[in-house]
């Protein structure tokens, strides 16, 4: 089973090493911390917290990173930096799945979010789940009932979903995910002045997907996981359709005002839901393996 301090004997400094690397990387590239939070969602939501997300396309494996749902994900190379630090102290001991989980936990703290104690002992998959990603990760324009059902199937209730979406209080959205709300007409649920600003960020209705054209999720506190996200939603400044729908859907809307007015309540719910997400269906005991390199299954296995 997963447990607190799983590595206390096999690699006593494991959690410390992850934290040190997360801090070092944050100081060099602040947005690495943002990536660690998104990585947890994209790994754990798809079947299991098993580091399937990190596998590269090789042999019979098609990387989950090539999915349309992984669009905009970045900083994968720095996962290797964290893993290398662990390998040099405790070879083949700490799983990539635990690196995903612990780096997200520590990334949240760097971004001013809540501290959490997290259980460890996850093991790494031998396979990628790229063929089924779309059955698990919602799209930016999916309906709220569908989004809620996806999370419900891994044991996360509506209150937890609303809190988790607060991760969109940091990071960015590329124009390809926005322009359908800006052109040809401005989505009437979007604040008109904000829409004009967004048109400035995304001047073309058909942006080149390879162009670095994006808007920050939260213009006011772009690098802090705080309840500003919910204040923006109440002011019709939600960026993605799914964000804005949290306010209009009767199941989720009651939680928005509460989170907008109480950052402590938001943080409590965010921790609760992130821990649930981080424990979704892990591989344990003798399932899977401990990958040496997070990008590839070990040679001779799988
Ligand atoms: C219905 C659920 C969700 C949908 C449809 C969704 C969709 C998206 C999209 C389209 C982007 C922008 C990608 C881009 O254009 O670069 C994004 C960014 C992001 N998402 Fe989500 N998301 C969802 C839930 C979550 C959850 C639960 C978390 C974490 C707990 C999360 C964390 C993030 C982060 C941190 C970013 C910013 C990434 C960066 O700046 O590099 N998202 N999401
Ligand atoms: Ca996974
Ligand atoms: Ca913020």
UniProtKB/TrEMBL annotation:
Residue pairs linked by disulfide bridges in the UniProt entry: 11-90, 44-49, 96-294, 175-202
Amino-acid biosynthesis found in the keyword field: no
Residues in Plant heme peroxidase family profile domain copies: 1-298
Organism superkingdom: Eukaryota
Residues that bind heme b: 168
Cofactor note: Binds 2 calcium ions per subunit. Binds 1 heme b (iron(II)-protoporphyrin IX) group per subunit.
Cofactor dependency: Ca(2+); heme b
Chemical reaction(s) catalysed: 2 a phenolic donor + H2O2 = 2 a phenolic radical donor + 2 H2O
InterPro entries tied to this protein: Haem_peroxidase, Haem_peroxidase_sf, Peroxidase_pln, Secretory_peroxidase
The protein's name: Peroxidase
Organism: Macleaya cordata
């Amino acid at each position: 089973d997963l447990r607190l301090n799983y590595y206390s004997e096999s690699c006593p400094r494991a959690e410390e090493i992850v934290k040190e690397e997360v801090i070092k990387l944050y100081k060099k590239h602040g947005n690495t911390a943002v990536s660690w939070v998104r990585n947890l969602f994209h790994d754990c939501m798809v079947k299991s917290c098993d580091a399937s997300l990190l596998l590269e396309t090789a042999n019979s494996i098609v990387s989950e990173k090539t999915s349309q749902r992984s669009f905009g994900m970045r900083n994968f190379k720095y996962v290797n930096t964290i893993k290398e630090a662990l390998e040099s102290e405790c070879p083949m001991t700490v799983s990539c799945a635990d690196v995903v989980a612990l780096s997200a936990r520590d990334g949240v703290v760097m971004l001013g979010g809540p501290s959490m104690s997290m259980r460890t002992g996850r093991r790494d998959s031998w396979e990628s789940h790229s063929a089924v990603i779309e059955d698990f990760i919602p799209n930016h324009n999916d309906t709220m009932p569908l989004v809620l059902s996806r999370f419900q199937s891994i044991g996360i209730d509506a209150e937890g979903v609303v809190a988790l979406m607060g991760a969109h209080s940091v990071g960015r959205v590329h124009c390809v995910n926005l322009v359908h709300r800006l052109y040809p007409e401005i989505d009437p649920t979007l604040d008109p002045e904000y829409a004009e600003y967004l048109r400035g960020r995304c001047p073309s209705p058909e942006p080149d997907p390879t162009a670095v054209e994006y808007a920050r999720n939260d213009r006011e506190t772009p690098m802090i996981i705080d309840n500003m996200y919910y204040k923006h939603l109440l002011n019709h400044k939600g960026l993605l359709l799914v964000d804005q729908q949290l306010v209009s859907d009767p199941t989720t809307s009651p939680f928005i005002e509460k989170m907008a007015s109480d950052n402590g309540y938001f943080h409590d719910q965010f921790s609760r839901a992130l821990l649930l997400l981080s424990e979704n269906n892990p591989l344990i005991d003798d399932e899977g393996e401990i990958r040496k390199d997070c990008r590839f299954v070990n040679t001779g296995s799988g």
